[in-house]
Write a structure and sequence with these properties.
The complex is a heterodimer of chains A (407) and B (316). Chain A is of the alpha+beta class. Chain A is built from 6 helices and 16 strands.
Chain lengths: 407, 316
């Protein structure tokens, strides 16, 4: 508490800075999502806010950072798929006991029931994330913005498919990332190009990963568990242009960002493991390293978008009312999608400390709310994500919530 | 009342918004002529539990690109799933055939010699009992019989690649080294068109589908031939207490050469496919026991060892 008082006293802005990025189901990029943006249909490359600097558009530093440094000291975020709790109950009560007891002890009828239920519950990918927002800071000096921060990200996702002849195939991955980001931006208004800003972020990521990608009958109760490790250096670049060509009652901004366009990529290598035999099978190490390097390689992704900040209506009641539109695409998507799936549209308005948000994420409804009380901010989002090829084909529904503290 | 109806409309609208996609209807699933797009649509239909749609899209994709291994394997798996033919069904059938769950009352108890008008493939004099049975009395078999045309289609879809590699029904069991060689060759062949990790997965699915289809059609051919040749199948309890499945008929020679010789080869082929998949794809298991494939292999050996006793010398 003493630290807060001292920092307040010296005039530092303690509002939390949040961060967010792409879709976990489409890219292996290390990033931290924000419920605030997910609630807006995952749109906002052209809508600068403290939440969008480190993983979204580093050019936003020019708009958001001030001469007084802003800090986030700690935050946590979690998100999970709507169907997670049904699956968790099935996993704990039925699947794990069956594997522990040995599938061979089950009757054909019991086995069929288990496999059928496994496939029915797990056909759609389920994602669970937990993130830690470690200390970060932003500031601007003479038109040049600076920012740095550390983040912890963890995600777990899985799906069951048919391995042939009724046997479920498990596709399970758990990832833990420690990410350090440094960002910089330049306001071109200082050299006569008004409204234009450019930014660059460099990220060092240390990643630990474990996976299982094989038929259920090939997994035993004595299955070896391997942990693979990889490090990567990646760079994101962003542009932001406040359009001054039209006489509009509000502010129109255009923006573009490219992620991981330059970088070292991941090279997954065996780090440690657990085995009942005492020694990890060498074939398994080679197999899982190969799988990880194929499935979880780092590839670039891109966003372009526009945002329109409306003039303040009913002065003192509605603030920061904005509409944002993004088009997002991946150079190597996990699921190639039609163009409308890349479309993200959102809106927000603020009433006092309360922020209401809504949007369309690839056509699926999103909504959420935020409560920003100076040093503490709370955000929640409920959002749909397209897992299929085109909007409406294979949707999944998710919750995301975050609390961030300016200490 | 007005407030109530307004709330209902608002609730309905909200539910629709949260369940629908505003772009619904713009794209039509399965309408593309691109095999890769049809394959993606089929996979999404499977994930949505719509197997009929998936098979339709995969058939269209297969028509446009018959040489695509991935499409053939996906179609084979979808056909088996749609018709509820899986390892559990085969295991159920094997259990029924091995056990005494189907068939009539025991015959020949303490009776020496075979019936006068029958030739048996076993020593009737030493048998403690012989109980006739028919696959046709098994629910599992009847389900297989109804889907024979599907099994033939599956065999054709996955058999092409195995034929290319020379993995055809033979008269000998493959050694473990042979099976490793076959698996590596299969993965290499598929990896010509797909990433290696996908090739491994496709190879194991192909082997499983090929094994299940081969085993099912083999059992069906035995039953059909037995009926045509007036062969009766028996659960035979031997003097030492062991139980085998064997057969009698007016002329077993025709049944042996016409059915059991090819069936023996098919059985070897089936078991080899399942072993190949198990040994190579699950090579990191510290123990190979406990797998449904292992159970099937064991059941298959027990079944065919009984059925084919004495056949090998006749065939050769």
């Amino acid at each position: 508490m003493c630290v807060v008082v001292v920092l307040c006293f010296v005039g530092l802005d303690l509002r939390p800075i949040e961060a967010f990025g792409q879709s976990y189901s489409q890219t292996s990029r290390a990033f931290v999502q924000s419920p605030g943006v997910l609630a807006m249909g995952d749109a906002g490359v052209a809508l600068p806010s403290p939440e969008t600097i480190f993983f979204y558009n580093p050019a936003h530093l020019s708009s958001v950072a001030g001469t007084r440094p802003q800090f986030t000291l700690l935050g946590i975020r979690g998100s999970l798929s709507n169907n997670f709790f049904d699956q968790l109950a099935f996993f704990e009560d039925e699947l794990m006991p069956a594997i522990d007891d040995g599938l061979e002890t089950m009757s054909n009828e019991e086995l069929r029931e288990l496999y059928d239920e496994t496939l029915a519950l797990g056909r759609r990918r389920t994602i669970v994330n937990g993130d830690l927002l470690l200390p970060s800071a932003i500031a601007k000096i003479n038109g040049i913005g600076f920012g740095a921060g550390a983040f912890g990200h963890s995600s777990l996702h899985y799906r069951f498919e048919n391995a042939g002849a009724g046997i479920p195939h498990i596709d399970f991955t758990a990832i833990a990332d420690f990410i350090f980001v440094g960002s910089g931006s330049f306001d071109f208004g200082r050299i006569g190009v008004d409204g234009l800003a450019a930014g660059l972020s460099g990220k060092v990521t240390n990643r630990w990963l474990t996976l299982k990608n094989k038929p259920l009958d090939a997994i035993g109760s004595d299955e070896d568990i391997l942990f693979l490790k990889a490090s990567a250096l990646g760079f994101d670049a962003g542009l932001q242009y406040d359009v001054g060509l039209f006489t509009l009652p509000g502010d129109l901004t255009l923006a573009a960002a490219a992620y991981d366009v330059v970088g070292s990529g991941y090279d997954y290598e065996y780090s440690s493991g657990t085995s009942e035999e005492g020694e990890i099978n060498a074939d398994l190490i080679a197999e899982e390293e190969d799988l990880a390097n194929t499935l979880y390689a780092l590839h670039p992704s891109y966003r372009v978008g526009a945002a329109y900040l409306l003039p303040q209506a009913l002065p003192g009641v509605f603030k920061n009312t904005a509409i944002a539109l993004d088009y997002l695409w991946y150079s190597h998507p996990n699921v190639p999608q039609e163009s409308l799936s890349h479309l993200h549209l959102g809106a927000q308005t603020q009433v006092g400390f309360f922020i209401l948000r809504g949007g369309l994420n690839s056509g699926y409804t999103t909504f959420g709310a935020g409560l920003h009380l100076g040093m503490i901010s709370l955000d929640y989002a409920f959002y749909g994500v397209e897992q299929g090829r085109f909007p409406g084909q294979l949707g999944s529904w998710n919750h995301s919530a975050q609390i961030a503290l300016g200490l | 009342m007005k407030i109530g109806s307004d709330l209902l409309i608002a609730l309905t609208f909200s539910l629709c918004l949260s369940a629908c996609n505003v772009f619904d209807g713009i794209y039509e699933e399965g309408s593309s002529s691109e095999p890769a797009v049809l394959l993606a649509d089929a996979r999404n239909a499977i994930r949505d539990g719509r197997l009929d749609d998936a098979v339709e899209y995969l058939n269209k994709a297969h028509e446009r690109q018959p040489g695509n291994i991935e499409i053939r394997v996906e179609l084979a798996s979808a056909l088996l799933t749609l018709n509820a033919i899986d390892v559990m069904l085969i295991a159920e059938l094997a259990d029924e055939i091995e056990g005494d769950e189907i068939g009539g009352e025991p015959e020949w108890i303490s009776k020496a010699g075979c019936p006068d008008d029958l030739v048996c493939n076993f020593d009737c004099g030493s048998a403690k009992s012989a109980t006739p049975f028919s696959y046709g009395d098994s629910d599992a078999y009847r389900r297989l019989e109804e889907a024979l045309h599907v099994l033939e289609q599956v065999s054709a879809l996955v058999g092409v690649t195995l034929d290319e590699l020379g993995a055809v029904p033979g008269s000998r069991f493959l050694t473990r080294a042979d099976r490793k060689e076959l698996y590596d060759a299969l993965v290499d062949r598929i990896a010509e068109e797909h990433p290696r990790e996908k090739a491994r997965r496709l190879a194991t699915t192909l082997l499983l589908d090929a094994g299940i289809a081969s085993l099912s059609t083999t059992l069906a051919s035995i039953e059909q031939s037995a009926s045509a040749n007036e062969i009766t199948l028996y659960h035979v309890e031997q003097a030492d207490g062991g139980k085998i499945v064997d057969y009698c008929g007016p002329d077993v020679a025709q049944f042996i050469t016409g059915t059991m010789c090819p069936a023996t080869s098919s059985a070897h082929f089936t078991l080899d496919m399942l072993k190949t998949r198990l040994e190579n794809f699950a090579s990191n298991r510290s123990s190979e026991s406990g797998s449904i494939a292992t159970e099937l292999i064991d059941a298959g050996h027990e079944l065919f060892d009984g059925l084919t006793s004495g056949v090998q010398s006749s065939c050769s």
